[in-house]
């Protein structure tokens, strides 16, 4: 290799080292927040070990959102307003879909709800992909109205956690991924 040529292998090594040093604290904080979220939601009688898996899908959506919010804090999907709007839209229409699926073919309603939620997320500038999982969870697992309370509680916990992590400077470390 000639002097001054780009060395991809060296770049990857240095990038990985910088990422590892800057991401450790945000990773620990994210793990703590997700475990705290599971604990709180479990305490308000939303059993995370239900046999039907409803809560598993909801918690995986929240865990995916935590990754985006805390480890990709400056991406478009990590904006608090996008996160909140997307989950509220998905929860509302997911519950409507659950209700309507008692009267109309489930697959038809599921397709309509996913279309409506996706369209509204795009139109309201609220693209946060994990929220679609919430709409699906409400329909598939027939989550009753108390699921909206669970959803709002989870939203509040993640928004407060992001605010606290920003004020503590934890999230600024996650954004230092570029090798200078």
Structure explained in plain terms:
There is one protein chain. The chain has helices at residues 8-43, 54-71, 80-100, 106-123, 131-140, 146-167, 170-174. It is mostly helical and 180 residues long. The chain has one domain (11-174). The chain contains seven helices and no strands. 72% of the residues lie in helices and 0% in strands. The two termini are 22 Å apart.
Q: What distance lies between the first and last C-alpha atoms, to the nearest angstrom?
A: 22 Å
Q: What is the radius of gyration? A: 19 Å
- Which regions have little confidence, pLDDT < 50, spanning 5+ residues? none
Rounded mean pLDDT is 80
| Helical residues, percent | over 70%
Largest sheet: none
Number of helices: 7
The structural class is mainly alpha
Q: In total, how many domains does the architecture comprise?
A: 1
By DSSP, the count of extended strands is 0
Strand content: under 5%
Shape: globular
Topology order in helix (H) and strand (E) letters: HHHHHHH
Looking at the chains present, what oligomeric state does this protein adopt? single chain
